[in-house]
Amino acid sequence: CPTHCSFPVPALRPSLSLHPSQEVALGDTVTLRCRVSRPGVLVSIYKEGDGMRQWYRDSVGDMAEVHVDVSTRNFAGRYWCSCNISPLPCTLSNPVELVVLDPSFLPPVMSLSPEGRVTRGTSVTISCQSTYGATFILHKAGRSAPIQRQSLVWGNTVTFTLPRVTWADAGTYGCSYRPRENPFVSSHPRSEVTLELEPGGP
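Structure tokens predicted for TARM1 protein:
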């Protein structure tokens, strides 16, 4: 190629993460970390729907940190970060969702069917009920990610199914919900039920 040829410069894409978790109790602190692959850039963090950047850090190294006291539900939502270093282009980061755990929302009512200890291979249902919930989320103790989620079309109860349970399914399950008016706010604390299996067998 002749010396005057030019090639497009790949755009920088930062990465945004939340610490210690994407779920933060009302009144606690969350840290937003925006990582970039090039030092000395201006980093901006945006919240969906606000139309302007929330925070910025100039001349950062490979990471910019913002510590936020989650004092109200208004911090709940979807966030991005971007960078600025002329003449290199920079795209928006991956979006992250900050979920605020609000104790003013009563926990849902939970139940197991069948009740008591069950044998391996039984199909078990877990019901969660609340008049405030639009989306219900099933959690299992020891796992960071939700097990299942369901959105209500009508009524106030959802049913999660655990088909043909095994020893791996035994344990404590929790249920939370997101209210209709704000999908990034969650009930807190979770209601809980425990699934026990009959002893014996492999």
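The first strand starts at residue 15 and ends at 19.
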